[in-house]
Design goal:
The complex is a heterodimer of chains A (about 160) and B (about 1100).
Chain A lengths: L6 E6 L3 H10 L8 E6 L7 H9 L4 E6 L10 H19 L6 E5 L5 H16 L10 H23 L1
Parallel strand pairs in A: 1-2, 1-3, 3-4
Helix pairs in contact in A: 1-4
Chain B lengths: L7 E6 L2 E6 L4 H7 L23 E6 L2 E6 L9 E4 L3 H17 L4 H9 L20 H9 L5 E4 L6 E4 L13 H5 L7 H4 L7 E2 L8 E2 L2 E2 L11 E2 L5 H5 L4 H5 L21 E3 L4 E2 L16 E3 H8 L20 E8 L15 H15 L4 E6 L9 H11 L3 E4 L5 E3 L6 E6 L5 E6 L1 E6 L1 E2 L2 H10 L24 E3 L9 H19 L25 E6 L11 H9 L4 E7 L5 H13 L4 E6 L2 H14 L7 E5 L1 H5 L6 H19 L9 E3 L4 E4 L3 H12 L4 E4 L21 H14 L3 E4 L2 E9 L2 E8 L2 E7 L1 E4 L3 E3 L13 E3 H10 L9 E5 L16 H15 L4 E6 L8 H10 L3 E4 L7 E5 L2 E8 L4 E7 L1 E4 L3 E3 L3 H8 L26 E3 L9 H19 L3 E3 L5 E3 L9 H5 L5 E3 L5 E3 L9 H5 L5 E3 L4 H12 L1 H6 L29
Helix pairs in contact in B: 9-10, 10-11, 13-25, 14-18, 15-16, 18-28, 19-20, 19-25, 21-22, 22-23
The chains are: A alpha/beta (about 160), B alpha/beta (about 1100).
Amino acid sequence: MNDNPVILAFCCHYCAYAAADLAGSMRLQYPANVRVLKLPCTGKVEVNYILAAFERGADGVFIAGCLEGGCHYLEGNLRARRRVERAKKILQEIGLEPERLEMYNLSSAEGPRFAQIATEMTERIAALPPSPLRPDRATVEKNVQEMAAAAQAAVAGDNR
Amino acid sequence: MEATSADHVAVTVDGRTSQVRAGTTILDAARQMGIAIPTLCHYRGLNPYGACRVCVVEVETPRGPRQVASCSYPLDAPTVVHTDTDAVRQSRQTVLELLLAQAPDSTELQTLAAEMGVKATAFEKAPKGKCVLCGLCVRVCNELMGRGAINMFGRGAPRKVQTAFGEPSDQCQACGACAVVCPTGAIDLAAITARHIQPHITRYDQYLTARPSIDMAHPQAAPRVPSIDRENCLHFRTGECGLCKEVCQAGAIDYDQQETTRDLTVGAVVLTPGFEAFDATRRGEFGYGFARNVVTNVQFERLLSASGPTAGHVQRPSDGKAPRKLAFIQCVGSRDTGCDNEYCSSVCCMAATKEAIQAKEHEPDLDVTIFFLDLRAFGKDFDRYCERAKNQLGVRYVRSFISRTYEMPETKNLALTYLDANMKRTTEEFDMVVLSLGLEPSATLQQQAERLKVALNRWGFAQTTELDPLTTSRPGVFVGGTFQEPKDIPETVMQATAAAAKAMTLLARSRGSAVKVKKYPLERDVTDEPARIGVFICHCGSNIASVVDVAAVVKAASALPNVVLAEHNTYTCADDTQDRLKDKIDEYRLNRVVIASCTPRTHEPIFRDTLRDAGLNQYLVEMANIRDQCSWVHSGDPVKATAKAIDRVRMSVGRAARLVPLAEETIPVKNSALVIGGGVAGMTAALALADQGFPVELVEKSDVLGGTARQIHTTLDGADVQAYLARAIERVGKHPRIKLHLNSHVAKVEGGIGDFTSHLVTGEQTAEITHGVAVLATGALEAKPTTYGYGQSPSVLTQVELSERLAAGTLDIPAGATIAMIQCVEQRTAERPYCSRVCCTQAVKNALELRRKYPQARVVVLYRDMRTYGFREAAYRQAREAGVLFVRYEADAPPQVALNGQSIRVSITEPALGRAMDLQVDLLALAAPMVPRADRKELSDLLRVPLNADGFFLEAHVKLRPVDFASEGLFLAGTVHAPKFLTETISQANAVAARAAAILSRKRMPVSGQIAWVDPEKCISCMTCVHVCPYGAPKVGTDNKAEVQSAVCMGCGNCTAECPAKALSLRHCIDVQVLGAIGGLLTPDAAARGFEPVYPEQVGVARPKWHAAPAPETQHER
């Protein structure tokens, strides 16, 4: 069980991202675990990006593109789907649950669908244990603070 | 950072200090700082009252902490406030417990209490009630509305809000303000007012919902600002209220705005006033207006909409239940002489089918029936769509005109009587009925047209002719869209674009004279500077700050590597903040900017412009969407929303640090056009472009111009097509800017928008031409049928052949002869599942002509659906009046034709009579299909543009971009796109000219910086990118390495993801930038440690020749 998973969403500019904005305009409520990364087309999502997200400790990743047949760039979303399938196999091989990764299709007019996808994905990932690759968030925070302090000290030193 | 002056005091709330204007209450000060304090009785615009005590906070005094109501505590000396101590929480809980006991029935109160950790009250509960006696309703009624209809009565426990003597009040104006301000939902307006409560209705939601007197007309309103409905607004009616002005923090309400009239001097006018839906109450027999479950198709469209009043759930208006059985009644107010709408509205058959499909998708068990007269699915791929509705989704189509609906008194269901498939009178009950309303020109338009001196036709639409569908009776005034004739979206887009071409021809000489070019300062060279990021976090008024702790976001952002400045602003997009942003860029020598605010889809252009104004490259800004995708969707969870906002900012900072300045390359535009095809479409496009001043190369395969139109002699409205054609051919021949190439074809097309190079082959010679755009207008042709005895008897003709013979006068029709016409020959079948659109009208036209010339002859039209859409319906009616017989047949029982020497026998089963009929026929005309030309495949390969399943060319977007190909700079017009009438071809060809002129009129074209680039060192010449790209942007260049043609690339990045050698990268979306964002989110520490600056050379951008900007005099360091 994971009560506060971090889920990364690769969203296409034309459909999923617009749908996520629409969900906002409609003030639909969904769990606050999804972090959206906008790309021009889901066809830009490389297997490498998906794996990088898991490597850095994402608990879940989903790719949301246009409806099949409705890709702004004709076939980008179909390519994305194929890559998702490939990445799922890799996840399985390295011992991560493939269901941490999913591909969705929706149109820009489907705000409620985006909210539903975010909810569904959050529930699915929350039922799994936290990613074994996830760094301790407190340590990360501590490191960031230390780096900030070091940077400030360095600047102060320069100015002296 | 904020100015301190005598009239400001320092306030420290929860450890954060800020300067606020003296006299500000603690509550307002905290809200300005983005700290939320719960309250019930506070309402902006009403004086603080301190009634509910929920807003209690702790103030430090010399004598120790003191609890005060924050809403009524003005700050006039430096004060330290705590909003979240144990004592404060406990006090609030006690207050809420008391309030809960007083108002046990209020769900609003229970929700607030639960949020504050109060589940139950320890105090003795009142038996019932929702009121907490906060007095907001009384105060709003007294102070703002000036009515005093309600007041507090009694003292102590029995105290309550009521009207005078507890009777419904005459004083009350039923404005509902009391209900709006009540925090606990305790107001029942019906019990207060003696008046009839009548909500204002929404036009946009088709009267399905109520609205306030100030609102946004619809969600996509432009400009996207609310407006006041003066007729209903209380302030305008009574001078009181003014609540909106009090509440608006931006101070945007101005009651003194006046309607202004401006005089404009223009060279051309385009009329696009659209249509109005038929008033369904004029056909009272359908029950609209009193039978509650009878709705119009426009209302149903709103019910289906995800942003509509029911959030996309189909509900019956009478009881809000999902209907089980739904019926559509077609042709309400169309094809109806009874209400003077003789024409067909053209769109309703498909609109009903679409709505039926959508309703079925929402509710798969829904039973949908469409009652129709003729199924007019005449457009591109429309028949396929209807077949899908029928066969895959089970939508039932019943050919029967419903004469009325009967509302069942108990269930509010509607009984419809119709003739079923076996011609039995059947009565069936439906839960809900949708009326497919006709399209009408509005009454106000009629007056407007009179003022403009534009002639209208007999139905009140703009009068035009078939051969010039764009020009009204007044020169210089053009028309687009449904004001000319009812039409669907693509037809409307085409015609309106075409009207623009007409206007542009008139205005060609003054093109560009009113354009103002904005001047920007020189861009600063930042390539060698380490990233210095400024992060600006927007409150968006309270849209973000009321949920997200913006101060916490600022703090987190400040700690991130490369961030030298982080601050928050009330409205980052406001003019003054934009100026402040520019100042901060200078002051802190920022070279990357992160804006955490709303969506980049609307605001990125604004901030890019700000950067350009500040002398920074526009690609150095990055936005974090913490409103649309954060505060708005997580308003119930401020803690997690804040955490998410911080993460979003980290992602943006991670990406911003790796952003690279990109130059927007511009390419010179060749201002000439290549038009392939010399039919009406090609000639019209060529003339329209040449008349605007652009050189045109017109290429025709055969030795004559005119194409298929050479076989058409008259239009339905009687115009002489051959005379029109002769004039056009003459103009093309004489036009100084048109170069005509007969007997020629195009062999090779290379390059992209603005800069194509093509090979033109004429006989043995090949010439190379350059052009900025290309237009495909190679047309279609009438197929020669293989059935019904065609070719076996001289008396079996196609419709086109018949019309030619009629025009030539070479028909020999004896008196008393019978002429039969068979429609839908070899089309609308499994092998050719589309409709050729023109044949029904062609049949009607020929039948009328036959009746005129040979009044003794009998004409029988055997049809499946008469698709005489729009005003063509009048001719269909005329034909029936002239005695033409129309006999329907079913697709599965087509007519049988037997040839026996000279005689032709046609047998058919008439489904309404259920009887076989035999006709002895002297002449048989077949409606042969319009088919694409044989060379379509070569043309498709030549231009790298797609074909649809029927072999017609596929446009960029079937609704919104009907004349463009997906590849920029390529266009299509005429029947090469889909079967269509001459008048529609003329519109489309003009539309092409307008779209093409938008490119050709530019000297240079900017190419987005976000395009793909091939690193030649890594390219292995595998051609993957060439195959992947839908636009043909990558090509094999020097050394067999791939090269991306920047003008053709659309920036999708598909090739970069597929490249096996990782030789391709998409600028502005390169791997390190994407990974930077991912790292920023999850491991900002590791990402920062591994940080390497990115230089333009890495994405193939030559280091620009930067103009040195003067070094800023003051330099701030952290």
